[in-house]
Amino acid sequence: MPDDAPLISTTFRLVIAPSPLVKSVKGGVVNRASWVVRYRNSGSPFDDVRSPKVVRVGDRLGTVEQMEKHGPALVLRREERWRMDMVQRLQVLSDAFGVAGFEDEVRDVLHDMVGTMVDECQVDPLGNLICLRGEGPTVMLDAHMDEVGFMVRWIEADGFVRLAPLGGWDERILLAHRVTFRTDDGARLYGVLGAPPPHILSPEDRRKAVSLEDLVVDVGAADRAEAMRWGLRVGTPATLHYPFQTLQGDYVTGKAFDDRAGCVVALEVLSRLERERLPYRLAVNFAVCEEAGLRGARTAAWRLDPVLALALEGTIGADVPGVPEAKQPVRLGSGPALTVADRSIIVRPRMIRFLERLAEEEGLDYQYKLPTYGATDAGAIHLERGGVLAGVVSVPCRYIHSPVSTLRLSDLEATVRLVAAFLRRAAELL
Ligand SMILES: [Zn+2]
């Protein structure tokens, strides 16, 4: 196959957003790598949302007849995938399914996006995607691939589905959302977290939050057997899927900016430093299971044995009405947030002073993430081996651990610039 050939075999459909670089194809079965795709026409039977979706090797994309009915598809060529700009990367990554423990779609997308920007990519036994370039002592960047989500806990005899949380949810926000399940074969199934009508509730009950324990998902099944025939079973992962959306100003919203924002920062930095020589081995770990207790970062750090590490996060923006400034861990529009301490790490002042100096030299606004909210992969990394000098730089995001996380692109860009400066100068800390 010539190098510039689309990596999709003969038959049909779709892909990435408007770009002069994409090419129409006729359709078929996915034959290589993974593809981020978008149907040109909305209302296609293959996809119920007008957002990109990932298809994988072996996926059938539909029939030629369906394709003809619903319009041509576009497919992105390999060499163009990693050139997608920052916003598009964020969109594609946020929309990908990546509940803790089920990060494979996000990993495939990242693997494609990293492309030739590194010397080598490895997937470790836990599913971390480790990308390596250069030689020497190891400097580690870490961004977690997983998002908070759920798995099926139980299917009732009447077909209603109960969920167990994967990661830390605020149970007050769950009611009346749509739920997207991903079955073993990658198909999507949908349901709603419905509620009894207010008309039949007592005034006290109307004011009460309903705990996840008491919520059920209505998937439209007549009974348990039907739900199971569709592919639901104990352990099927699920998320609250809201497609990426641009708001006004430079605000964007999506379901998984914690921590796909960090993943985008890592990608952008790799891209901007691609032609620069670094006097160390750079290891970028796209980690699994952060939301389940910083799990992937721990084994990756042991394997990589870094001398220096930086965790990249999307973190707790709370600059909203009703929250006093002293209780806002970070604010949107104030630039990257430097962690001084959270529940998992007390960052050494040497690291913080270094980051401050870099931000000032770059002319970037920055802020401190107020102690000691949250925990990050740096907490696991800095305790590996004989101890690792580690810090955390975060993109401020409001409403994390909800389907509508929201950030400002100016903060994202400033974080990229700070982390790029960090890598250019990291040798000063070695
Ligand atoms: Zn996170």
Task: Describe the model.
By secondary structure, this protein is of the alpha+beta class. The chain has three domains: 58 residues, no CATH class; 237 residues, Aminopeptidase (3-Layer(aba) Sandwich), CATH 3.40.630.10; 91 residues, Elongation Factor Tu (Ef-tu), domain 3 (Beta Barrel). The protein has eleven helices and 20 strands. Strands 5, 6, 7, 13, 14, 15, 16, 17, 18, 19 and 20 form an eleven-stranded mixed sheet that branches. It has a five-stranded antiparallel sheet with strand order 9-8-12-10-11, with no helix packed on it. A hairpin with a 4-residue loop joins strand 13 and strand 14. Helix 3 packs antiparallel against helix 7, helix 7 packs across helix 11 and helix 9 crosses helix 11. The chain is globular. The N terminus is likely disordered. The site of zinc ion (ZN) has 5 residues, from helix 7.
CATH fold-type name of the largest domain: Aminopeptidase
For the record, what CATH class of the largest domain applies?
Alpha Beta
Give the CA-based shape.
globular
Bound molecules: zinc ion
**Radius of gyration, taken over Cα atoms and rounded to an integer in Å:** 22 Å
Number of strands: 20
CATH architecture grouping of the largest domain: 3-Layer(aba) Sandwich
Counted up, domains total: 3
* Oligomeric category: single chain
Cα distance spanning the termini: 44 Å
- Helical coverage, percent range: 10-25%
Q: Averaging pLDDT over every residue, what do you get?
A: 84
Low-confidence stretches: 1-83
CATH superfamily of the largest domain: Zn peptidases
Helix/strand-derived category reads alpha+beta
Estimate the strand proportion: 15-25%
**Biggest sheet: strands, sense, closure?**
11 strands, mixed
Helix segment count? 11
